[in-house]
Amino acid sequence: AARGASVRSRLAGRAGGRMSSAASSSRSSPSSSPPPRRQARADAPDERAPMPQCFCAAVAAGAPGVNSGRKRKVLAYGDSLTAGLYNKGDNFSAYGHVLADALAAGGLATEVWVCGLSGLTAVQMTKRLPSKRIRDCTDRIGKGIQQILLEDSSFDLALIMAGTNDMSTSTNAAAIATSVQSLHSACHELGVPTVMLSVPPNELLAQPPSSEEGKKLSEKQVKSARGRARYLDRWTNTNELLREWAHGAGRTDGVVLFVDVAALVPYSEPSPFWEEDGLHLSPEGSKRLGEGLAPLIAPLLSEGAAAAAVRGDRNATLRALAPMPELVAPPQPLSPARATGVVRRRVLAFGDSLTAGYNCYGHLFTPYAEGLVPALLPGIEAEVWLCGLSGMTAEDMANDLDKAEVSDCLDRTGKGLRRMVKDEGPFDLAVIMAGTNDLAEDPEPEDLLEHIVVMHKACHKAGVPTVALGVPPSRAASGESSLADPRKTVNKLLRAWSRGPDNAKARNGRPGIISFVDTDELMPYDRADGNWEADGLHFSRAGCLRFGERLAKLLSPLLAAEPVGGGPR
Question: What pLDDT score does 342 carry?
Protein backbone atom coordinates (compact mmCIF):
# COMPACT_ATOMS: atom_id res chain seq x y z
CA ALA A 1 0.00 0.00 0.00
CA ALA A 2 2.76 2.52 0.71
CA ARG A 3 3.01 4.36 -2.57
CA GLY A 4 3.25 7.99 -3.74
CA ALA A 5 2.98 10.84 -1.27
CA SER A 6 0.77 13.15 -3.32
CA VAL A 7 -2.29 12.67 -1.12
CA ARG A 8 -0.62 10.98 1.81
CA SER A 9 1.48 14.11 2.01
CA ARG A 10 3.01 13.12 5.32
CA LEU A 11 3.80 9.52 4.41
CA ALA A 12 6.76 7.93 2.71
CA GLY A 13 6.83 7.77 -1.06
CA ARG A 14 7.68 4.06 -1.09
CA ALA A 15 6.80 1.05 1.01
CA GLY A 16 9.08 1.07 4.01
CA GLY A 17 10.44 4.53 3.21
CA ARG A 18 10.78 7.24 5.80
CA MET A 19 8.01 9.72 6.44
CA SER A 20 8.49 13.33 5.48
CA SER A 21 9.64 15.75 8.15
CA ALA A 22 6.07 17.05 8.47
CA ALA A 23 4.95 13.64 9.63
CA SER A 24 7.88 12.74 11.82
CA SER A 25 7.85 16.08 13.61
CA SER A 26 4.39 15.39 14.92
CA ARG A 27 5.62 12.25 16.63
CA SER A 28 9.04 13.13 18.02
CA SER A 29 11.19 16.13 18.74
CA PRO A 30 13.87 17.12 16.20
CA SER A 31 16.58 15.89 18.55
CA SER A 32 15.07 12.47 19.25
CA SER A 33 16.55 9.45 17.55
CA PRO A 34 14.42 7.12 15.43
CA PRO A 35 13.06 4.03 17.17
CA PRO A 36 15.10 0.85 16.70
CA ARG A 37 14.00 -1.51 13.97
CA ARG A 38 12.27 -4.61 15.26
CA GLN A 39 13.68 -8.02 14.55
CA ALA A 40 11.56 -10.67 12.87
CA ARG A 41 10.68 -13.78 14.85
CA ALA A 42 13.28 -16.51 14.65
CA ASP A 43 10.62 -19.00 13.53
CA ALA A 44 9.13 -16.65 10.92
CA PRO A 45 8.74 -17.95 7.34
CA ASP A 46 10.79 -16.60 4.48
CA GLU A 47 9.39 -13.09 4.35
CA ARG A 48 10.54 -12.41 0.79
CA ALA A 49 9.46 -15.66 -0.78
CA PRO A 50 7.75 -15.49 -4.17
CA MET A 51 4.00 -15.03 -3.96
CA PRO A 52 1.49 -16.44 -3.51
CA GLN A 53 3.08 -17.79 -0.35
CA CYS A 54 1.42 -20.63 1.53
CA PHE A 55 0.67 -20.61 5.27
CA CYS A 56 -0.82 -23.68 6.90
CA ALA A 57 -1.05 -25.00 10.47
CA ALA A 58 -1.75 -28.51 11.66
CA VAL A 59 -5.07 -29.13 13.37
CA ALA A 60 -4.50 -30.28 16.93
CA ALA A 61 -6.11 -33.54 17.96
CA GLY A 62 -9.30 -32.88 19.87
CA ALA A 63 -9.65 -29.35 18.55
CA PRO A 64 -13.28 -28.16 18.71
CA GLY A 65 -15.30 -28.72 15.58
CA VAL A 66 -12.58 -30.72 13.83
CA ASN A 67 -13.49 -31.19 10.17
CA SER A 68 -12.28 -34.52 8.88
CA GLY A 69 -12.85 -33.59 5.23
CA ARG A 70 -10.32 -32.28 2.76
CA LYS A 71 -8.03 -29.38 3.52
CA ARG A 72 -9.50 -26.04 2.48
CA LYS A 73 -7.64 -23.52 0.34
CA VAL A 74 -7.97 -19.73 0.58
CA LEU A 75 -6.30 -16.96 -1.42
CA ALA A 76 -5.59 -13.63 0.29
CA TYR A 77 -4.91 -10.99 -2.38
CA GLY A 78 -4.15 -7.29 -2.17
CA ASP A 79 -1.40 -4.76 -1.55
CA SER A 80 1.15 -4.25 1.24
CA LEU A 81 -1.57 -4.45 3.90
CA THR A 82 -2.24 -7.99 2.73
CA ALA A 83 1.49 -8.71 2.54
CA GLY A 84 1.83 -7.47 6.12
CA LEU A 85 4.59 -4.94 5.43
CA TYR A 86 6.05 -3.47 8.61
CA ASN A 87 9.33 -2.24 10.08
CA LYS A 88 9.76 0.31 7.28
CA GLY A 89 9.48 -2.40 4.67
CA ASP A 90 12.18 -4.64 6.09
CA ASN A 91 9.74 -7.29 7.28
CA PHE A 92 6.37 -8.84 6.50
CA SER A 93 3.78 -10.35 8.82
CA ALA A 94 0.75 -11.31 6.73
CA TYR A 95 -2.68 -11.61 8.31
CA GLY A 96 -3.05 -14.79 6.26
CA HIS A 97 -0.49 -16.53 8.48
CA VAL A 98 -2.56 -15.82 11.58
CA LEU A 99 -5.77 -16.68 9.74
CA ALA A 100 -4.43 -20.16 8.92
CA ASP A 101 -3.44 -20.67 12.56
CA ALA A 102 -6.81 -19.49 13.85
CA LEU A 103 -8.76 -21.70 11.46
CA ALA A 104 -6.66 -24.70 12.46
CA ALA A 105 -7.25 -23.93 16.12
CA GLY A 106 -10.96 -24.12 15.35
CA GLY A 107 -10.57 -27.53 13.74
CA LEU A 108 -10.46 -26.44 10.09
CA ALA A 109 -7.27 -27.34 8.24
CA THR A 110 -6.74 -24.57 5.71
CA GLU A 111 -3.98 -23.44 3.41
CA VAL A 112 -3.95 -19.65 3.14
CA TRP A 113 -2.01 -18.45 0.11
CA VAL A 114 -0.97 -14.80 0.34
CA CYS A 115 -0.14 -12.45 -2.53
CA GLY A 116 0.28 -8.85 -1.36
CA LEU A 117 1.70 -6.58 -4.06
CA SER A 118 3.14 -3.60 -2.21
CA GLY A 119 2.64 -0.29 -3.97
CA LEU A 120 0.07 -1.47 -6.51
CA THR A 121 -3.25 0.27 -6.90
CA ALA A 122 -6.44 -1.65 -7.58
CA VAL A 123 -6.40 -0.13 -11.06
CA GLN A 124 -2.92 -1.58 -11.66
CA MET A 125 -4.01 -4.96 -10.33
CA THR A 126 -6.84 -5.11 -12.85
CA LYS A 127 -4.44 -4.26 -15.66
CA ARG A 128 -2.23 -7.14 -14.55
CA LEU A 129 -4.90 -9.79 -14.01
CA PRO A 130 -3.22 -12.43 -16.21
CA SER A 131 0.39 -11.50 -15.41
CA LYS A 132 2.68 -14.39 -14.56
CA ARG A 133 5.25 -12.18 -12.89
CA ILE A 134 4.73 -8.87 -11.09
CA ARG A 135 7.55 -7.15 -9.22
CA ASP A 136 6.22 -4.84 -6.53
CA CYS A 137 7.90 -1.77 -5.03
CA THR A 138 9.68 -3.89 -2.40
CA ASP A 139 11.11 -6.17 -5.12
CA ARG A 140 8.93 -9.09 -4.10
CA ILE A 141 7.52 -11.16 -6.95
CA GLY A 142 3.84 -12.02 -7.28
CA LYS A 143 1.23 -12.77 -9.92
CA GLY A 144 -2.06 -11.47 -11.25
CA ILE A 145 -5.07 -12.87 -9.45
CA GLN A 146 -6.50 -14.38 -12.61
CA GLN A 147 -3.21 -16.13 -13.34
CA ILE A 148 -3.05 -17.59 -9.83
CA LEU A 149 -6.52 -19.11 -10.21
CA LEU A 150 -5.79 -20.38 -13.71
CA GLU A 151 -2.72 -22.19 -12.43
CA ASP A 152 -4.58 -23.71 -9.50
CA SER A 153 -8.32 -24.27 -9.72
CA SER A 154 -8.65 -25.74 -6.23
CA PHE A 155 -9.19 -22.53 -4.24
CA ASP A 156 -12.35 -22.51 -2.15
CA LEU A 157 -12.39 -18.79 -1.45
CA ALA A 158 -10.55 -15.56 -2.26
CA LEU A 159 -10.19 -12.65 0.18
CA ILE A 160 -9.50 -9.33 -1.55
CA MET A 161 -8.37 -6.12 0.14
CA ALA A 162 -7.28 -3.34 -2.24
CA GLY A 163 -7.75 0.35 -2.91
CA THR A 164 -5.50 2.07 -0.37
CA ASN A 165 -2.93 3.13 -2.98
CA ASP A 166 -5.65 4.44 -5.30
CA MET A 167 -6.56 6.99 -2.65
CA SER A 168 -3.38 8.90 -3.47
CA THR A 169 -4.20 9.18 -7.17
CA SER A 170 -6.67 11.27 -9.15
CA THR A 171 -8.92 8.24 -9.64
CA ASN A 172 -12.44 8.92 -8.40
CA ALA A 173 -14.32 6.71 -5.96
CA ALA A 174 -16.50 5.11 -8.67
CA ALA A 175 -13.46 4.08 -10.72
CA ILE A 176 -11.65 2.71 -7.67
CA ALA A 177 -14.70 0.68 -6.69
CA THR A 178 -15.05 -0.59 -10.27
CA SER A 179 -11.44 -1.78 -10.24
CA VAL A 180 -11.87 -3.62 -6.94
CA GLN A 181 -15.07 -5.17 -8.26
CA SER A 182 -13.16 -6.36 -11.34
CA LEU A 183 -10.76 -8.30 -9.13
CA HIS A 184 -13.75 -10.08 -7.64
CA SER A 185 -15.32 -10.67 -11.06
CA ALA A 186 -12.11 -12.31 -12.27
CA CYS A 187 -12.49 -14.83 -9.43
CA HIS A 188 -16.20 -15.36 -10.03
CA GLU A 189 -15.66 -16.11 -13.72
CA LEU A 190 -13.38 -18.96 -12.66
CA GLY A 191 -15.88 -20.29 -10.13
CA VAL A 192 -14.17 -18.94 -6.99
CA PRO A 193 -16.37 -17.08 -4.48
CA THR A 194 -14.94 -14.03 -2.76
CA VAL A 195 -14.91 -12.06 0.46
CA MET A 196 -14.65 -8.29 0.06
CA LEU A 197 -12.57 -6.48 2.64
CA SER A 198 -13.12 -2.73 2.75
CA VAL A 199 -10.33 -0.23 2.11
CA PRO A 200 -8.64 -0.04 5.53
CA PRO A 201 -8.47 3.16 7.58
CA ASN A 202 -5.27 5.16 8.14
CA GLU A 203 -4.00 8.26 9.89
CA LEU A 204 -5.40 10.71 7.34
CA LEU A 205 -8.87 9.70 8.48
CA ALA A 206 -8.02 10.38 12.09
CA GLN A 207 -6.50 13.83 12.02
CA PRO A 208 -5.81 16.53 9.41
CA PRO A 209 -2.37 18.09 9.18
CA SER A 210 -1.85 20.86 11.69
CA SER A 211 -1.54 24.42 10.44
CA GLU A 212 2.18 24.29 11.14
CA GLU A 213 2.55 21.05 9.17
CA GLY A 214 0.45 22.50 6.38
CA LYS A 215 2.98 25.28 5.91
CA LYS A 216 5.63 22.68 5.13
CA LEU A 217 3.67 21.02 2.34
CA SER A 218 4.65 21.88 -1.20
CA GLU A 219 2.14 23.58 -3.48
CA LYS A 220 1.96 20.38 -5.55
CA GLN A 221 1.15 18.29 -2.49
CA VAL A 222 -1.51 20.70 -1.32
CA LYS A 223 -3.13 20.81 -4.74
CA SER A 224 -3.08 17.02 -5.12
CA ALA A 225 -4.19 16.12 -1.62
CA ARG A 226 -6.87 18.77 -0.94
CA GLY A 227 -6.45 17.95 2.70
CA ARG A 228 -8.05 15.45 4.98
CA ALA A 229 -11.62 16.27 3.97
CA ARG A 230 -11.17 15.27 0.33
CA TYR A 231 -9.26 12.12 1.26
CA LEU A 232 -11.95 11.17 3.77
CA ASP A 233 -14.70 11.72 1.21
CA ARG A 234 -12.97 9.50 -1.34
CA TRP A 235 -12.32 6.75 1.20
CA THR A 236 -15.88 6.91 2.54
CA ASN A 237 -17.51 6.97 -0.91
CA THR A 238 -15.36 4.10 -2.19
CA ASN A 239 -16.24 1.89 0.74
CA GLU A 240 -19.94 2.73 0.47
CA LEU A 241 -19.90 1.76 -3.21
CA LEU A 242 -18.09 -1.49 -2.39
CA ARG A 243 -20.53 -2.31 0.40
CA GLU A 244 -23.52 -1.59 -1.82
CA TRP A 245 -22.16 -3.76 -4.63
CA ALA A 246 -21.18 -6.61 -2.31
CA HIS A 247 -24.69 -6.74 -0.88
CA GLY A 248 -26.35 -6.35 -4.30
CA ALA A 249 -25.05 -7.34 -7.72
CA GLY A 250 -21.81 -8.69 -6.26
CA ARG A 251 -23.71 -11.06 -4.01
CA THR A 252 -25.49 -12.47 -7.06
CA ASP A 253 -22.14 -13.05 -8.77
CA GLY A 254 -20.28 -14.66 -5.89
CA VAL A 255 -19.39 -12.19 -3.10
CA VAL A 256 -20.30 -14.14 0.02
CA LEU A 257 -19.26 -11.63 2.67
CA PHE A 258 -18.39 -7.95 3.10
CA VAL A 259 -16.00 -7.16 5.95
CA ASP A 260 -15.52 -3.67 7.37
CA VAL A 261 -11.80 -3.67 8.18
CA ALA A 262 -12.15 -0.52 10.26
CA ALA A 263 -14.50 -2.40 12.58
CA LEU A 264 -11.99 -5.23 13.09
CA VAL A 265 -8.89 -3.03 13.36
CA PRO A 266 -9.96 0.57 14.02
CA TYR A 267 -7.35 3.26 13.56
CA SER A 268 -6.31 5.26 16.55
CA GLU A 269 -3.18 7.06 17.64
CA PRO A 270 -1.25 5.80 19.41
CA SER A 271 -2.15 2.17 18.78
CA PRO A 272 -0.26 -1.12 18.98
CA PHE A 273 -2.07 -2.19 15.82
CA TRP A 274 -0.58 0.37 13.45
CA GLU A 275 2.91 1.21 12.28
CA GLU A 276 4.53 4.59 12.88
CA ASP A 277 3.77 5.60 9.28
CA GLY A 278 0.06 5.64 10.10
CA LEU A 279 -0.70 3.52 7.05
CA HIS A 280 0.44 -0.07 7.60
CA LEU A 281 -0.68 -2.63 10.11
CA SER A 282 1.85 -3.64 12.73
CA PRO A 283 2.38 -7.38 13.33
CA GLU A 284 -0.12 -7.02 16.16
CA GLY A 285 -2.56 -5.38 13.77
CA SER A 286 -2.19 -8.14 11.19
CA LYS A 287 -2.71 -10.66 13.97
CA ARG A 288 -5.87 -8.90 15.07
CA LEU A 289 -7.18 -8.85 11.48
CA GLY A 290 -6.44 -12.54 10.92
CA GLU A 291 -8.03 -13.55 14.22
CA GLY A 292 -11.05 -11.37 13.52
CA LEU A 293 -11.57 -12.87 10.07
CA ALA A 294 -11.32 -16.50 11.19
CA PRO A 295 -14.79 -16.84 12.79
CA LEU A 296 -16.32 -15.03 9.81
CA ILE A 297 -14.59 -17.23 7.22
CA ALA A 298 -14.88 -20.61 8.95
CA PRO A 299 -18.62 -21.13 8.33
CA LEU A 300 -18.16 -20.37 4.64
CA LEU A 301 -15.46 -23.03 4.35
CA SER A 302 -16.91 -25.71 6.60
CA GLU A 303 -20.43 -25.62 5.23
CA GLY A 304 -19.52 -25.22 1.59
CA ALA A 305 -21.88 -22.26 1.38
CA ALA A 306 -19.37 -20.16 -0.51
CA ALA A 307 -18.96 -22.55 -3.43
CA ALA A 308 -22.70 -22.72 -4.02
CA ALA A 309 -22.99 -18.94 -4.34
CA VAL A 310 -20.67 -18.24 -7.26
CA ARG A 311 -21.87 -17.73 -10.84
CA GLY A 312 -18.83 -19.00 -12.74
CA ASP A 313 -17.55 -22.42 -13.74
CA ARG A 314 -14.07 -23.64 -12.80
CA ASN A 315 -13.94 -25.78 -15.92
CA ALA A 316 -15.19 -23.20 -18.40
CA THR A 317 -13.00 -21.48 -20.98
CA LEU A 318 -12.24 -17.86 -20.20
CA ARG A 319 -14.65 -15.69 -22.13
CA ALA A 320 -11.69 -13.60 -23.33
CA LEU A 321 -10.44 -16.72 -25.15
CA ALA A 322 -13.77 -18.11 -26.31
CA PRO A 323 -14.81 -17.86 -29.97
CA MET A 324 -17.92 -16.00 -31.08
CA PRO A 325 -20.81 -15.98 -31.71
CA GLU A 326 -21.67 -16.69 -28.11
CA LEU A 327 -25.09 -17.73 -26.86
CA VAL A 328 -26.65 -15.99 -23.86
CA ALA A 329 -29.91 -17.64 -22.82
CA PRO A 330 -32.09 -17.85 -19.70
CA PRO A 331 -30.32 -20.00 -17.09
CA GLN A 332 -33.10 -22.58 -17.08
CA PRO A 333 -35.89 -23.11 -19.61
CA LEU A 334 -39.30 -22.33 -18.20
CA SER A 335 -41.41 -25.29 -17.15
CA PRO A 336 -44.50 -26.01 -19.28
CA ALA A 337 -46.71 -24.64 -16.50
CA ARG A 338 -44.80 -21.38 -16.29
CA ALA A 339 -44.29 -21.12 -20.04
CA THR A 340 -47.95 -20.54 -20.81
CA GLY A 341 -48.21 -17.32 -22.75
CA VAL A 342 -44.44 -16.84 -22.86
CA VAL A 343 -43.05 -15.47 -26.12
CA ARG A 344 -39.85 -17.13 -27.37
CA ARG A 345 -37.51 -15.14 -29.55
CA ARG A 346 -34.03 -15.43 -31.09
CA VAL A 347 -32.00 -12.23 -31.18
CA LEU A 348 -28.69 -11.41 -32.87
CA ALA A 349 -26.48 -8.77 -31.19
CA PHE A 350 -23.66 -7.52 -33.41
CA GLY A 351 -21.05 -4.81 -32.99
CA ASP A 352 -17.64 -3.99 -31.51
CA SER A 353 -16.14 -4.20 -28.01
CA LEU A 354 -19.17 -2.47 -26.49
CA THR A 355 -21.32 -5.36 -27.69
CA ALA A 356 -18.71 -7.88 -26.54
CA GLY A 357 -18.76 -6.31 -23.07
CA TYR A 358 -15.06 -5.49 -22.96
CA ASN A 359 -14.06 -4.40 -19.46
CA CYS A 360 -11.10 -4.61 -17.10
CA TYR A 361 -8.71 -3.67 -19.93
CA GLY A 362 -9.90 -6.54 -22.07
CA HIS A 363 -9.22 -9.25 -19.50
CA LEU A 364 -12.93 -9.68 -18.76
CA PHE A 365 -16.07 -9.52 -20.89
CA THR A 366 -19.64 -8.89 -19.78
CA PRO A 367 -21.92 -8.66 -22.85
CA TYR A 368 -24.94 -6.42 -22.39
CA ALA A 369 -26.92 -9.52 -23.37
CA GLU A 370 -26.32 -10.78 -19.82
CA GLY A 371 -28.46 -7.91 -18.56
CA LEU A 372 -30.91 -8.04 -21.46
CA VAL A 373 -31.96 -11.69 -21.27
CA PRO A 374 -33.08 -11.82 -17.60
CA ALA A 375 -34.70 -8.37 -17.88
CA LEU A 376 -36.97 -9.65 -20.68
CA LEU A 377 -38.33 -12.41 -18.44
CA PRO A 378 -40.88 -13.61 -17.57
CA GLY A 379 -42.87 -12.47 -20.58
CA ILE A 380 -40.19 -13.05 -23.19
CA GLU A 381 -37.73 -15.92 -23.21
CA ALA A 382 -34.95 -14.81 -25.51
CA GLU A 383 -31.85 -16.48 -26.86
CA VAL A 384 -29.26 -13.85 -27.77
CA TRP A 385 -26.44 -14.78 -30.11
CA LEU A 386 -23.75 -12.14 -29.86
CA CYS A 387 -20.63 -11.24 -31.75
CA GLY A 388 -18.64 -8.21 -30.57
CA LEU A 389 -15.46 -7.64 -32.56
CA SER A 390 -13.17 -5.46 -30.44
CA GLY A 391 -11.34 -2.72 -32.30
CA MET A 392 -13.24 -3.16 -35.56
CA THR A 393 -14.81 -0.25 -37.38
CA ALA A 394 -18.20 -0.26 -39.08
CA GLU A 395 -16.27 -0.14 -42.35
CA ASP A 396 -14.39 -3.32 -41.39
CA MET A 397 -17.65 -5.05 -40.49
CA ALA A 398 -19.31 -3.97 -43.74
CA ASN A 399 -16.37 -5.37 -45.71
CA ASP A 400 -16.33 -8.69 -43.81
CA LEU A 401 -20.03 -9.55 -44.03
CA ASP A 402 -19.47 -13.03 -45.47
CA LYS A 403 -16.31 -14.13 -43.67
CA ALA A 404 -16.52 -17.42 -41.77
CA GLU A 405 -13.82 -16.26 -39.35
CA VAL A 406 -12.88 -12.74 -38.35
CA SER A 407 -10.14 -11.96 -35.81
CA ASP A 408 -10.43 -8.80 -33.75
CA CYS A 409 -7.69 -6.73 -32.11
CA LEU A 410 -7.65 -9.04 -29.07
CA ASP A 411 -7.35 -12.17 -31.23
CA ARG A 412 -10.89 -13.26 -30.41
CA THR A 413 -12.60 -14.80 -33.41
CA GLY A 414 -16.09 -14.20 -34.68
CA LYS A 415 -18.00 -14.22 -37.96
CA GLY A 416 -19.13 -11.72 -40.51
CA LEU A 417 -22.68 -10.48 -39.96
CA ARG A 418 -24.26 -12.05 -43.03
CA ARG A 419 -22.40 -15.31 -42.42
CA MET A 420 -23.64 -15.32 -38.84
CA VAL A 421 -27.26 -14.84 -39.97
CA LYS A 422 -26.84 -17.75 -42.37
CA ASP A 423 -25.08 -20.12 -39.94
CA GLU A 424 -26.87 -19.36 -36.67
CA GLY A 425 -30.28 -18.18 -37.90
CA PRO A 426 -33.15 -17.86 -38.18
CA PHE A 427 -33.47 -14.73 -36.04
CA ASP A 428 -36.44 -12.62 -35.06
CA LEU A 429 -34.37 -9.48 -34.60
CA ALA A 430 -30.85 -8.14 -35.05
CA VAL A 431 -29.49 -5.38 -32.78
CA ILE A 432 -26.53 -3.53 -34.32
CA MET A 433 -24.25 -1.08 -32.50
CA ALA A 434 -21.15 0.11 -34.37
CA GLY A 435 -19.21 3.24 -35.24
CA THR A 436 -17.22 4.03 -32.09
CA ASN A 437 -13.91 2.90 -33.57
CA ASP A 438 -14.56 4.75 -36.84
CA LEU A 439 -14.63 8.07 -35.01
CA ALA A 440 -10.91 7.78 -34.24
CA GLU A 441 -10.24 7.77 -38.00
CA ASP A 442 -12.07 11.06 -38.57
CA PRO A 443 -14.53 9.76 -41.19
CA GLU A 444 -17.10 11.76 -43.06
CA PRO A 445 -20.38 11.18 -41.18
CA GLU A 446 -22.14 10.24 -44.44
CA ASP A 447 -19.52 7.56 -45.13
CA LEU A 448 -19.84 6.10 -41.64
CA LEU A 449 -23.62 6.04 -42.03
CA GLU A 450 -23.28 4.13 -45.27
CA HIS A 451 -21.18 1.41 -43.64
CA ILE A 452 -23.76 0.99 -40.87
CA VAL A 453 -26.58 0.93 -43.44
CA VAL A 454 -24.82 -1.88 -45.34
CA MET A 455 -25.02 -4.09 -42.23
CA HIS A 456 -28.69 -3.36 -41.65
CA LYS A 457 -29.59 -4.04 -45.28
CA ALA A 458 -27.74 -7.36 -45.19
CA CYS A 459 -30.03 -8.44 -42.35
CA HIS A 460 -33.16 -7.09 -44.06
CA LYS A 461 -32.35 -8.99 -47.25
CA ALA A 462 -32.04 -12.17 -45.19
CA GLY A 463 -35.48 -11.55 -43.69
CA VAL A 464 -34.32 -10.20 -40.31
CA PRO A 465 -35.61 -6.84 -39.00
CA THR A 466 -33.14 -4.68 -37.13
CA VAL A 467 -32.80 -2.20 -34.31
CA ALA A 468 -30.19 0.52 -34.80
CA LEU A 469 -28.33 1.59 -31.67
CA GLY A 470 -26.74 5.01 -32.00
CA VAL A 471 -22.98 5.39 -31.65
CA PRO A 472 -22.57 5.47 -27.84
CA PRO A 473 -21.20 8.43 -25.90
CA SER A 474 -17.78 8.36 -24.29
CA ARG A 475 -15.37 10.71 -22.57
CA ALA A 476 -13.57 11.26 -25.88
CA ALA A 477 -16.78 11.93 -27.83
CA SER A 478 -18.60 14.10 -25.31
CA GLY A 479 -18.62 17.78 -24.49
CA GLU A 480 -16.52 19.97 -26.73
CA SER A 481 -14.13 17.29 -27.99
CA SER A 482 -13.30 16.97 -31.68
CA LEU A 483 -15.19 13.67 -31.82
CA ALA A 484 -18.40 14.99 -30.30
CA ASP A 485 -19.82 16.68 -33.40
CA PRO A 486 -19.14 13.79 -35.84
CA ARG A 487 -20.80 11.35 -33.44
CA LYS A 488 -23.86 13.55 -33.04
CA THR A 489 -24.07 14.02 -36.81
CA VAL A 490 -23.84 10.28 -37.53
CA ASN A 491 -26.54 9.53 -34.98
CA LYS A 492 -28.76 12.24 -36.43
CA LEU A 493 -28.33 10.76 -39.92
CA LEU A 494 -28.93 7.21 -38.65
CA ARG A 495 -32.10 8.27 -36.87
CA ALA A 496 -33.36 10.02 -40.01
CA TRP A 497 -32.57 7.03 -42.22
CA SER A 498 -34.34 4.64 -39.83
CA ARG A 499 -37.48 6.74 -40.20
CA GLY A 500 -37.14 7.38 -43.91
CA PRO A 501 -38.74 5.81 -46.98
CA ASP A 502 -36.14 3.04 -47.19
CA ASN A 503 -37.59 1.59 -44.02
CA ALA A 504 -41.28 2.16 -44.69
CA LYS A 505 -41.52 -1.55 -45.45
CA ALA A 506 -40.71 -2.29 -41.80
CA ARG A 507 -43.89 -0.51 -40.87
CA ASN A 508 -45.77 -2.65 -43.37
CA GLY A 509 -44.82 -5.99 -41.86
CA ARG A 510 -41.62 -6.61 -43.81
CA PRO A 511 -38.01 -6.63 -42.59
CA GLY A 512 -36.42 -3.23 -42.07
CA ILE A 513 -35.33 -1.04 -39.16
CA ILE A 514 -38.11 -1.16 -36.61
CA SER A 515 -36.50 1.17 -34.06
CA PHE A 516 -33.65 3.60 -33.49
CA VAL A 517 -32.25 3.74 -29.94
CA ASP A 518 -30.60 6.92 -28.69
CA THR A 519 -27.69 5.57 -26.65
CA ASP A 520 -27.14 9.00 -25.07
CA GLU A 521 -30.48 8.61 -23.35
CA LEU A 522 -29.95 4.94 -22.62
CA MET A 523 -26.48 5.33 -21.07
CA PRO A 524 -25.27 8.95 -20.77
CA TYR A 525 -21.59 9.35 -20.06
CA ASP A 526 -20.86 10.14 -16.42
CA ARG A 527 -17.41 9.31 -15.08
CA ALA A 528 -18.73 9.08 -11.51
CA ASP A 529 -21.79 6.85 -11.92
CA GLY A 530 -19.97 3.50 -11.94
CA ASN A 531 -21.19 2.58 -15.43
CA TRP A 532 -17.93 3.36 -17.20
CA GLU A 533 -14.42 1.98 -17.18
CA ALA A 534 -11.48 4.21 -16.30
CA ASP A 535 -10.71 4.59 -20.02
CA GLY A 536 -13.94 6.56 -20.45
CA LEU A 537 -14.80 4.50 -23.51
CA HIS A 538 -16.07 1.11 -22.37
CA PHE A 539 -18.88 0.16 -20.02
CA SER A 540 -17.88 -1.32 -16.68
CA ARG A 541 -19.33 -4.72 -15.81
CA ALA A 542 -22.11 -2.94 -13.94
CA GLY A 543 -22.61 -0.61 -16.90
CA CYS A 544 -22.85 -3.51 -19.36
CA LEU A 545 -25.56 -5.16 -17.28
CA ARG A 546 -27.39 -1.87 -16.78
CA PHE A 547 -27.26 -1.13 -20.51
CA GLY A 548 -28.89 -4.51 -21.22
CA GLU A 549 -31.56 -3.98 -18.57
CA ARG A 550 -32.48 -0.58 -19.97
CA LEU A 551 -32.46 -1.86 -23.52
CA ALA A 552 -34.88 -4.63 -22.51
CA LYS A 553 -37.55 -2.04 -21.74
CA LEU A 554 -37.31 -0.76 -25.31
CA LEU A 555 -37.06 -4.14 -27.03
CA SER A 556 -39.74 -5.91 -25.02
CA PRO A 557 -42.76 -4.50 -26.93
CA LEU A 558 -40.97 -5.09 -30.24
CA LEU A 559 -40.24 -8.72 -29.41
CA ALA A 560 -43.69 -9.31 -27.97
CA ALA A 561 -45.33 -8.22 -31.23
CA GLU A 562 -45.86 -10.69 -34.08
CA PRO A 563 -42.35 -11.24 -35.46
CA VAL A 564 -41.48 -10.47 -39.06
CA GLY A 565 -38.15 -12.28 -38.89
CA GLY A 566 -37.49 -15.94 -39.44
CA GLY A 567 -37.24 -17.13 -35.83
CA PRO A 568 -39.56 -19.60 -34.04
CA ARG A 569 -43.18 -18.58 -33.66
Answer: 85
